[in-house]
Write a structure and sequence with these properties.
There is one protein chain. 36% of the residues lie in helices and 27% in strands. By secondary structure, the protein is an alpha+beta fold. It starts with a strand and ends with a helix. Residues 1-30 have low confidence and may be disordered.
Length: 613
């Protein structure tokens, strides 16, 4: 299929022809009447159909085409004002749903006529479809975007077939001065409700833009922000070339984008960039953290974005192989039902988050089943009363999920054995709760409960270690295990994980007897070495009458050999199980290594002494 840039209306017409054809095929498009909904600028438009009906958006515009609608603002005589993004935004937000709410604002649709008081106008129909008809119709919709060629002034740009929810890059590249074959353009294949996958407008890239250039680009408008975000995600695909300084620069740019222009389109690019960063070399991430806390800034920027992103629908969900973000505006009534979020893998061998599914539920309604999910978080009920939230406006609740602990850098941390899940309520500090936040975790490692020596439910404390951040179990109320899944209760809300102290399966049922034999053997050896050293000490006067260099040297060698062996055994017994502290474990390993080498050297010297005797 070939389309020219700017022919959005033609594409939209073709799209609705396809949708209507599906509806006609199943007898659902009968006796339909069109209705009109309007909302003045900075107000919300809510569209609701009767039970058993779904919304079909026929036409929509954010701007102004009449001077007699929404007259309480400036420049209402400017009636030639159209926002091209209105139709796709409203279609994504409402089509296929029974009810939807969209805010009429520049942050959602852009500003098509600066200074004019605008309004949102939507022409829609409510279609009566049975559940079976809706299910059958959905099967006809694709979950991928077909290959498409776009004509530009400089030639054709081809985007390959792409799965929904991911970015595609043009097959045509431009060679930059660095030798990196950069695509000419990027495009997002967006999954929509009731219409399958659709292409977003393409974003054309600059060939010789570097991270330094991007860091010096002021983000003055949504268009510039989208261009910077797209450039950033493309540059960071070359993860093996990113240094610690590059990671820091990327974190600064992500912060600027999250604060300047939090739109869903920019969020899609930010999530891809963060996914790329999670595959950067661990040493580079460590150095960036120790320098200017780059990884921590990325995590905090994502939380800021989740708090402020302008939602076009009730819920925004973006999934990448290593990171997931979901943000939703809910009423206090819904919040008090005990909001929850869960992730479950699809059952195949892939560990990618995109191969699984996320779900939202409420504890009060009995939705969801955290005990069967790979990871979940459930907020307490009646949370508005606990937090004393009196505002009747919607509350922003967001969840983040990380596939590993790459961005949570702590040199001395134990092995984080689960994915990391976090939750937030915008504008609220959630701590010292009277009812706990409940989390369930399935271990990432393939080991049995018998192999787990210690389980620690932890949260990421951004202020620990002089601002470097560290895992802490403060506020953990209790930990339980059932069917291989671990449940943690916390009295606060942030980012959570589980750290496992795992030892090998050893010798099974023979492990305890062998441990006893080892300890007894070491103790007997220590006693023997101590008696040997005492015998040397008590016979010191007699040794003075020994004549011959060989005999004197032999005595000194044997004393030092006994001391080295004695140190090895004592350090082994006292320190072999001290694995909780990385520093302590390192000291034990160093001492064992030193005294073992010393014992071998003294043995070698005794061999030489015997040979030369």
């Amino acid at each position: 299929m070939i389309v020219a840039v700017g022919q959005r209306s033609v594409l939209q017409l073709c799209l609705w022809t396809r949708v209507l054809a599906v509806l006609f095929a199943f007898g659902a498009y009968q006796g339909v009447t069109a209705e009109v909904g309007r909302a003045c600028e900075r107000q919300r438009l809510t569209i609701t159909c009767d039970e058993g009906e779904t919304i079909l958006v026929l036409e929509a515009n954010y701007g102004r085409t009449s001077s007699s609608v929404c007259t309480q603002g400036p420049r209402i005589t400017d009636i030639d004002c159209f926002a091209e993004s209105t139709m796709p935004t409203m279609s994504q937000a409402c089509t296929g749903r029974r009810s939807c709410t969209v805010r009429a604002s520049n942050s959602v649709f852009g500003d098509p006529c600066v200074g004019t008081y605008k309004y949102l106008e939507v022409v829609y129909s409510c279609l009566g479809m049975t559940t079976e008809q809706m299910t059958t119709a959905k099967k006809d919709l694709q979950d991928f975007c077909e290959e498409e060629t776009i004509e530009t002034e400089t030639g054709r740009v081809v985007f390959p077939r792409t799965d929904g929810g991911s970015f595609a890059y043009s097959e045509e590249n431009c060679t930059s001065s660095s030798g990196f074959e950069k695509p000419l353009a990027s495009r997002f294949c967006r999954l929509t409700t009731g219409r399958g996958a659709e292409w977003d407008p393409p974003v054309f890239l600059a060939c010789d833009v570097s991270l330094r250039n991007l860091s010096q680009t002021p983000v003055m408008s949504p268009e510039v922000a989208l261009a910077v975000a797209t450039e950033l995600q493309v540059i960071t695909t070359e993860t093996e070339t990113l240094s610690s300084d590059d990671v820091t620069v990327v974190s600064v740019i992500i912060e600027e984008l999250a604060n300047a222009s939090p739109t869903e389109e920019i969020g899609d690019s930010l999530l891809t960039t963060i996914d790329n960063l999670m595959h950067v070399d661990a040493a580079a991430l460590m150095q960036s953290q120790q320098g200017r806390k780059g990884p921590t800034r990325v995590v905090q920027a994502l939380e800021t974005f989740a708090d402020t992103v302008a939602l076009t629908t009730e819920t925004y969900t973006s999934m990448r192989p290593s990171v997931v973000l979901q943000a939703a505006d809910i009423s206090l009534e819904e919040l008090d039902k005990g909001q929850g979020f869960a992730f479950s893998l699809s059952g195949n061998d892939s560990s990618s988050l995109t191969e699984g599914s996320v779900s939202s539920f409420t504890a009060e309604d009995g939705g969801g089943n955290p005990q069967t999910a790979d990871i979940s978080i459930t907020l307490p009920t009646n949370l508005s009363n606990i937090l004393q939230i009196n505002d009747s406006a919607a509350v922003r609740v967001s969840y983040t999920l990380y596939n590993d602990s790459s961005l949570f850098v702590q040199p001395s941390q134990g092995a984080v054995g689960t994915r990391i899940i976090g939750g937030r309520i915008a504008g609220q500090q959630i701590k010292n709760l009277s009812q706990p936040v409940v989390l369930t975790f399935a271990p990432l490692g393939d080991f049995s409960p018998e192999e787990i020596k210690e389980v620690r439910c932890v949260y990421w404390d951004f202020e620990a270690d002089a601002g470097q951040g560290a895992w802490s179990n403060e506020g953990c109320l209790n930990t339980t295990e059932e069917n291989g899944r671990f449940t943690c209760n916390f009295n606060h809300l942030t980012n959570f994980a589980v750290i496992f102290d795992v030892h090998g399966s050893g010798f099974g049922v023979h492990e305890d007897p062998l441990t006893v034999i080892t300890i007894v053997g070491c103790v007997v050896s220590i006693i023997g070495l101590v008696l040997t050293l005492l015998s040397f000490f008590f016979t010191m006067k007699h040794s003075r009458r020994i004549v011959g260099a060989h005999a004197k040297n032999q005595r000194h060698v044997l004393i030092n050999l006994c001391v080295a062996l004695l140190a090895i055994l004592i350090i082994f017994l006292a320190g072999i199980n001290q694995t909780a502290s990385v520093i302590g474990c390192t000291v034990v390993a160093a001492l064992l290594h030193y005294f073992l080498l010393a014992a071998l050297i003294w043995m070698a010297m005794e061999a030489v002494n015997i040979y030369t005797a």
